[in-house]
Amino acid sequence: MKKVEKCQKIKLYTKLSTLSTFFYVEKVVYIVKKSNIRFVHM
């Protein structure tokens, strides 16, 4: 039983970490696009 719980926790943590990494990348891409648009308009 405890082994299964540990496995589920590890899965949850990996899911969370991949999600947070994905959101971070999306944010960076969004900021870069915005600044690129700004530079183009200047």
Automatic annotation (TrEMBL):
Highest rank taxon of the organism: Bacteria
Name of the protein: Uncharacterized protein
Organism: Roseburia inulinivorans DSM 16841
